[in-house]
């Protein structure tokens, strides 16, 4: 009994520690295939992804009964569309993603993928269909090549190299002492936030799931790194249904649809130019970020 109890208890601990952070979803996937408290139904089918259309239909959710976090969220992501979610801290952006992975079930409403309610399909098939680019990718004490191969363990070297190229990591790798064989991770070369995120993108490109979820890093990036990520993300989004939690509005400019989330509700939706013309919430956020950029540039100028 004790032998069973300890590992289960430990997994429960790992699960609780990690559930708090979307950044760790990738790590959690490798440790734990299903979420405690969320059960597959006895007749759970395998998710059949034909197009990759995602629909949130009047979704409500509360972590605790006395505080509703999502208050009737509805939106559709068409196949191969790129949809960006923006909004203030605490608006519920990460919560939307946690529901899509079925770490929790909505308290009302439903989420479908190609018409199948995600509660009716097996969790393993659901998660196999979704690729995650977390804010802070976990790197193992192995070479860059092996770290990227983690996206699909049986990938051939040429496939891994193609993913590295498409994730715009090639120039970075070329400058390393042993190229793709350079060791990274805790005991190897430390990568910057932007480089790590591109490793995560390369993994996701290799896995090639029909649906891609991207949690943009909040940390500031230099503009070269930012351009690299934007280019890599465009590669991903050109073929897969892509949902992005965007912190920098530069990432969302070319999104097909931008959803502005405010205190658990979608308050605006449209393209960048449509939302600027509306002159509402999004236009205000945009103005603010432009001003921040200008003052950062002025500070840099003054420092020279
Ligand atoms: P950020 O941009 O800061 O990441 P967000 O828009 O992603 O914010 P969420 O992480 O979805 O916001 O959180 C929405 C609300 O839900 C917050 O008020 C948060 O405190 C609360 N919340 C998040 N996770 C939990 C949890 N595990 N238990 C209880 N409340 C939670």
From TrEMBL:
Localization recorded for this chain is: Cell membrane
- Identify the keywords attached in UniProt to this record, alphabetized: ATP-binding, Membrane, Nucleotide-binding, Transmembrane, Transmembrane helix
Predominant location category: membrane
- Membrane topology, as annotated: Multi-pass membrane protein
> Could you tell me which residue ranges the ABC transporter domain spans?
54-288
- The residue ranges crossing the membrane are 1-15
Keyword flag Nucleus: no
**Name of this chain's protein:** ABC transporter ATP-binding protein/permease
**Section of the entire sequence shown:** 301 to 604 of 604
